[in-house]
């Protein structure tokens, strides 16, 4: 009782300072040590240069040659993967009901990520709907759809941009140490003998393209070999998984890597699961990082062929919901009445986990997928607001990213500064007619090209470097 009185009175004193100076000092002490948003276009972040380097290495050297997903399949202890406890989790199917939350694209700015994590951590949320009040309990299960930390996966970004905000929102157990490595998962708390008995919030997640820039190394260390994300328990052992939920519902978490598709071993696991365990009248929620239904429509492409084949030939109408991130907005489409078989009933994108905002109005005309018609049920920001925000970038982008002009101007100067003495540009203006000026301009340009090749080695080296980097950066 004495300890309780001391703790309560001390806490009240800390939150009720006597003077303004004490208040300012206290505010600095209590302010969370969060990272700022990633300066994507400033050109001054070393993390961004490392991201570009890692992406070039991953795309050029490892794509098609080494795949961590195949390594995970080779390390599986159970020959029949559809029965493997490393991939299939059925500890939640005995419940009468289950609430879960889904987010994606976290770990950009500390404040924005914490704002989402704090909402997820609340015991309940009260939402006003017309004249009624809806009370939503905290999800027993948190599903994260990839891109856990930006701009590149490493110990710093995962710890500071991802784990730190979630730990502020919901603290892990007092006995847990951040440096701990889980040798045999799940590492259950004392007094809990099996995963079914654990009643606290749990988390499962899939990697996104940003998590694959280092070949999935950081994701494996911090997700598959750690036991806690803040106060959320992490039973997960692999980068993809299947969850059996109550009342005949399933969750398939797919790992698309940098290919935008699942590998053959992953396909085999989920296909056998559909044949052997998923009932004829069961319902499946499919999670991928990329919403290829939107991106394929926008780019006029066809990606994720293995995922599409799994949906059409094995799930056969049992996929009721597809969820994805990658696009940093909220958008939900539902299938309208159709004479054709409905492969997926609902399509949902929720990339609002704390990253910067992507536009929605560019997808306003999306209406069809898998041969079925869809209509927009909810979108944030609205198409109108998205257009207005995009128009604001004309002026706001330059003001926010003024460093980009400085860096870009310097790069341009390095590329062209040795051309100016050779161009004789003032002579062009002295011509009497427009035809003479145009001819002088093209002659000066042609002569300048040969001058660069013969004498201006700095500009030549800069141009060749830029062309080489651009060539290797473009995916094949």
From TrEMBL:
UniProtKB keywords: Membrane, Transmembrane, Transmembrane helix
Signal peptide: none
Domain Calcineurin-like phosphoesterase: 100-305
Keyword Membrane: yes
UniProt-listed SUPFAM superfamilies: Metallo-dependent phosphatases
Keyword Transmembrane helix: yes
Listed GO MF terms: hydrolase activity
Transmembrane spans: 402-420, 456-474
Taxonomic superkingdom: Eukaryota
PANTHER family, per the entry: CALCINEURIN-LIKE METALLO-PHOSPHOESTERASE SUPERFAMILY PROTEIN
Official protein name in the record: Calcineurin-like phosphoesterase domain-containing protein
Organism in which the protein naturally occurs: Aegilops tauschii subsp. strangulata
Native organism taxonomy: Eukaryota, Viridiplantae, Streptophyta, Embryophyta, Tracheophyta
């Amino acid at each position: 009782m004495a300890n309780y009185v001391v703790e309560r009175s001390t806490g009240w004193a800390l939150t009720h300072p006597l003077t303004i100076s004490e208040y300012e000092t206290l505010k600095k002490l209590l302010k969370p040590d969060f990272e700022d948003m990633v300066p994507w276009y400033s050109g001054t972040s070393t993390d961004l240069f490392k991201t570009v380097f890692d992406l070039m290495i991953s795309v050029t050297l490892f794509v098609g040659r080494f795949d961590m997903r195949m390594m995970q399949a080779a390390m599986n202890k159970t020959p029949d993967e559809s029965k493997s406890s490393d991939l299939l989790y059925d500890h939640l199917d005995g419940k009468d009901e289950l609430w879960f939350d889904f987010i994606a694209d976290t770990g950009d700015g500390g404040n924005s990520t914490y704002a989402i994590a704090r909402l997820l951590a609340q015991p309940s949320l009260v939402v006003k709907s017309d004249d009624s009040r809806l009370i939503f309990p905290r999800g027993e299960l948190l599903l994260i759809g990839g891109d856990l930390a930006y701009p590149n996966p490493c110990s710093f970004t995962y710890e500071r941009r991802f784990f730190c905000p979630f730990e502020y929102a919901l603290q892990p157990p007092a006995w847990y140490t951040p440096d701990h490595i889980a040798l045999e998962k799940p590492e259950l708390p004392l007094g809990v003998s099996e995963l079914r008995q654990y009643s606290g919030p749990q988390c499962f997640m899939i990697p996104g393209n940003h998590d694959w820039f280092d070949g999935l190394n950081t994701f494996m260390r911090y997700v598959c070999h750690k036991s806690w994300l803040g106060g959320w328990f992490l039973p997960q052992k692999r980068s993809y998984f299947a969850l059996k939920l109550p009342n005949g519902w399933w969750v398939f978490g797919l790992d698309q890597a940098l290919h935008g598709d699942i590998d053959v071993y992953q396909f085999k696991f989920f296909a056998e699961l559909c044949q052997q365990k998923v009932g004829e009248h069961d319902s499946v929620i499919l999670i991928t990082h990329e919403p290829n239904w939107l991106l394929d429509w926008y780019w006029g492409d066809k990606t994720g062929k293995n995922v599409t084949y799994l949906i059409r030939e094995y799930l056969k109408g049992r996929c009721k919901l597809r969820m994805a991130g990658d696009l940093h907005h909220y958008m939900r489409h539902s299938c309208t009445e159709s004479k054709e078989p409905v492969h997926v009933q609902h399509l949902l994108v929720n990339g609002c986990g704390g990253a910067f905002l992507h536009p929605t109005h560019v997808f306003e005309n999306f209406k069809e997928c898998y041969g079925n018609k869809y209509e927009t049920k909810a979108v944030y920001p609205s198409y109108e607001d998205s257009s207005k925000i995009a128009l604001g970038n004309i002026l706001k982008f330059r003001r926010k990213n003024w460093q980009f002009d400085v860096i870009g101007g310097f790069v341009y100067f390095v590329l062209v500064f040795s051309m100016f003495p050779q161009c004789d540009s003032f002579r062009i203006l002295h011509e009497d007619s427009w035809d003479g000026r145009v001819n002088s301009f093209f002659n000066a340009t042609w002569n300048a090209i040969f001058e660069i090749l013969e004498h201006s080695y700095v500009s030549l080296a800069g141009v060749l470097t830029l062309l080489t980097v651009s060539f290797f950066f473009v995916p094949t």
